[in-house]
Design goal:
The chain is α+β, with helices and mostly antiparallel strands. Helix content is 22%, strand content 38%.
Length: 184
Amino acid sequence: MTEYPSKRADIRLFIRAQRPSDWEALYEIREQAGVRPGVLAVPYTDPELFRERWSKTVPTMQRLMAEALLADGTTVIVGNLGLNRHKLSGADRADIGLQVHQDYQDIGVGSALMTAAIDLADNWFNLHRLELEVFVHNVRAIALYKKFGFEIEATERRDAFVNGAYFDTHWMGRLHPGHPGQKA
């Protein structure tokens, strides 16, 4: 477990690997009104099906958990990031998916998760490219991704149907700035 900066003095943030017992906390975060629409989750999903999905070991998936240590000594899972490495000819790329507990947004959870993911991608998995999809109206998330070197590469119009309406999404990508395969 590695500690990362928090914008709140009463909360310490740690990043660690996912444990099988984390599924309930992840399900609860995903079901929050301030999280579910941003991760394209459908309401009323069967918790048991969610548990089965998250309990499966996928060799190409690295799942990071953000855990907050509160002033009273309790710990709370406050976010997670999935780094899903591609296979075969795309083995030097990965997709990222991120979610942060609605009560712990804007305190550094996303930055901590992204810092850990970039470290894995650049220094351990030798990934050339990271990719993600984000709603065009999610200004905070776009700013976070740009802070870590992601650029908007495309916009898909009416790409996602959420809560009775279509929304546009941006496809964003980040090229490893020092990757040995980088061409001049």
